[in-house]
Amino acid sequence: MRVDDVEHSRRLHVVHDGERQAPPLLLIHGSGASGSTWNPVVPALAARHHLIRVDLPGCGQSPPVPSYDVPEQAGQVAAILDDLGLDHITAVGHSSGGYVATSLAEQRPDLVSSLALISSGPSPDALLAQPLPLRVLMAPPLGPLLWSRRSDAMIRKGMSAVCNLPVDIPDEVVADARGITYRTFRAVLRRNGAYIAERSVPERLAALDIPVLVLFGAADRRWEPSSAHQYDAVPNARVEQVPDVGHLPMFEAPETTSRLLLDFAETTADTLARDRRA
Questions:
Q1: What is the rounded distance in angstroms from the CA atom of residue 76 to the CA atom of residue 86?
Q2: What is the distance between the alpha carbons of residues 166 and 154, in angstroms, rounded to a whole number?
Q3: CB 257 within 8 A of CB 42
């Protein structure tokens, strides 16, 4: 049975999929995206888990906020989990959503028992040059004007530019992307950059001492693919690189992405259960 109901909790848009009694998986999208970017992997994941998909502030159907600092966004997600009465979850973040997931675990270790990061760049030096369609949309002084006039085709082209394999970007994902403003997107990118410049993601994860899955496309076009190995230094981290895949594994390789997430979530749940019995 699929729940697939929607609620607005603490001003954030939240979608639930799967049985509420199933083990919870928190899914956090990346910059300029929304919870709908998880659509390709939802059927497989919801068959075994209660999925909690959030639209971060200013994205999708969630309203903008004064500050997009990563810890503040993580605090809003923590409030949702508290409202739902959930703890000891597996938090999954795509791209900069991995930073929010990491910050959530830093702030509230009682809520997060394991982390899965998909295409989350480890540090600023790993960032590649933006694909041309994105550079055109972002560069002032024409950026704001082009952003306000961007067509569905331009949005699809921008998303596809970070992929290595052909993808079909659904209308729902495009519509959600259209809702984010130029100012919000720029602010989100700045605050994400500040978060990993202050301290790299591998450094932050090493201090947490929880199981971590790092999933990286071997042909990522946003982050240097070899930078995935910066995570090798993290205790309890498992690094998986998917051949031929770019920055959007959920769209480029949904079956592989689902399988790796399910295997990780179930393995860590078994380990946690054994530890509790010990």
A1: 14
A2: 16
A3: no
Taken as a whole, the chain contains a residue count of 278
Per-residue pLDDT of the chain (278 residues; tens, 9 = 90+): 333 454 544 589 999 999 999 999 999 999 999 999 999 999 999 999 999 999 999 999 999 999 999 999 999 999 999 999 999 999 999 999 999 999 999 999 999 999 999 999 999 999 998 877 777 777 777 788 888 888 899 899 889 999 999 999 999 999 999 999 999 999 999 999 999 999 999 999 999 989 999 999 999 999 999 999 999 999 999 999 999 999 999 999 999 999 999 999 999 877 766 666 65
CATH topology of domain 5-277: Rossmann fold (3.40.50)
Residue 223 three-state SS? strand
Whose tokens are 């961007």? That residue is 150
Nearest to 126 by CA among 224, 250, 21: 224
CA 266 – CA 264 distance, rounded (Å): 6
Q: Which two tokens stand for residue 141?
A: 């002084």
Distance of alpha carbon 277 from alpha carbon 238, whole angstroms? 24
Q: Count how many Cα atoms sit within 13 Å of the Cα of residue 250 in the half-sphere of its side chain.
A: 29
Six-digit token pair at 13?
A: 């848009």
Q: Which helix (H) or strand (E) holds 153?
A: helix 152-160
> Residue 152 corresponds to which amino acid?
D
- DSSP category for residue 140: T
Helix H or strand E segment including 175: helix 171-178
User: Whole-angstrom Cα distance, residue 230 to residue 38?
Assistant: 26
